[in-house]
Amino acid sequence: MPDKHRVVILGGGFGGLNAAQALNQAPVDVTVVDRRNFHLFQPLLYQVATGALSPGEIAAPIRGVLGGQKNTRVLLGEAVDIDPKARQVQLKDGTSVSYDSLIVATGSQSSYFGHDEWSEWAPPLKSVEDATMVRHRILLAFETAERVPDPAERAKWLTFVIVGGGPTGVELAGALGEIAHHTLLHEFRSIRPEDAKIIVVDGSERLLSTYPADLSQKAERQLASLGVTTYLGRMVTCVDANGISAKTKTGEVEHIQAHTVIWAAGVAISEFGRQLAKRTGVETVRHGLLKVNPNLTLPGYPDIFVIGDLAYVTDDKGKPLPGVAQVAMQGGSYVARVIEKRVEGTSDFKPFRYFDKGELAVIGRGAAVAKVFGAHLSGFIAWLVWLFIHLLYIVEFQSRVLVAVEWGFLYLTWNRGARLITGQAASDSIAATTEAADKVRAAMRS
Amino acid sequence: MPDKHRVVILGGGFGGLNAAQALNQAPVDVTVVDRRNFHLFQPLLYQVATGALSPGEIAAPIRGVLGGQKNTRVLLGEAVDIDPKARQVQLKDGTSVSYDSLIVATGSQSSYFGHDEWSEWAPPLKSVEDATMVRHRILLAFETAERVPDPAERAKWLTFVIVGGGPTGVELAGALGEIAHHTLLHEFRSIRPEDAKIIVVDGSERLLSTYPADLSQKAERQLASLGVTTYLGRMVTCVDANGISAKTKTGEVEHIQAHTVIWAAGVAISEFGRQLAKRTGVETVRHGLLKVNPNLTLPGYPDIFVIGDLAYVTDDKGKPLPGVAQVAMQGGSYVARVIEKRVEGTSDFKPFRYFDKGELAVIGRGAAVAKVFGAHLSGFIAWLVWLFIHLLYIVEFQSRVLVAVEWGFLYLTWNRGARLITGQAASDSIAATTEAADKVRAAMRS
Question: Does B92 touch chain A (CB under 8 A)?
Answer without folding.
Answer: yes
